Amino acid sequence: MKTGILGQVKRYVLLCVGLAIMAFGVAFSIKAGLGTSPISSLPYVLSLLTPLTVGTATIAMHVVLICLQILLLRRRYDPIQLMQLPVALIFGALTDFSVLAIQGVSVDSYLMQWVLCVIGILLVGVGVSFEVTANVVALAGEGMVLALCKVFPLKFANAKVGFDVTLVVIASTLSFLFLGQLEGVREGTVAAAICVGLVAKQINRPMEAFAKRYL
Predict the structure, then answer these.
(1) pLDDT tens, 134-180?
(2) Are 38 and 167 in contact (CB under 8 A)?
(3) pTM of the model
């Protein structure tokens, strides 16, 4: 029993480390100014339209996604998935901390923008791998995709693409309507959509070995 509890503690620690890495990835993508990852595009635009910080807007979006999961699944909703809420709170707080932490980083060229964008993509990919390896609770975005797959005859990969595209379309629409220009969605968003999963896939291999040995 002790081993089981210790294993769970280790997994939650790994999840928190992954969230911190992801948060810095989001912060670097914001600093780069080439567009955030699809999942962060809507919170970023909301932070420009309201007094909310990116982290607080992220928490708000996750709360909405948790509510939508409950509405979709109803009796099939697993109460353990409510753990998505504290995870969202931690991730939001870490995101705001990360944005503040790298405020002093200067971006004086398009090349430097891409350097920071690549760093952001790598960090988000590594963070996602840590989250997957921890295997305790999904972030609300992934939870929403899983809920859609339970209710509708959708493959996870297709649902994930559709979900990401929906967030980007909403973010772009709000940006054009209320800011008069496109914010948070640029070439870096496309790069993140393509590369984050590839980075996570590569990191998953050594992480699987790590999990077998230490978790």
Answers:
(1) 999 889 999 999 999 999 999 999 999 999 999 999 999 999 999 99
(2) yes
(3) 0.93
Cα 132 to the center of its chain, rounded Å: 12
Residue type at position 139 = L
Which DSSP state fits 75?
Answer: G
CA distance 55 to 88: 9
**Model pLDDT for residues 108-134, shown as the tens digit of each residue:** 999 999 999 999 999 999 999 999 999
Neighbours of 111 (CB within 10 A): 9
Minimal CA–CA distance to 92: which of 118, 60, 51?
60
Which positions ≥6 away from 84 have C-beta within 8 Å? Answer: 62, 66, 137, 138, 139, 140, 143
Q: How far is CA 56 from the centre of its chain?
A: 14
How many CA atoms does the CB half-sphere of 8 hold within 13 Å?
A: 5
Residue labelled with tokens 């992220």? 58
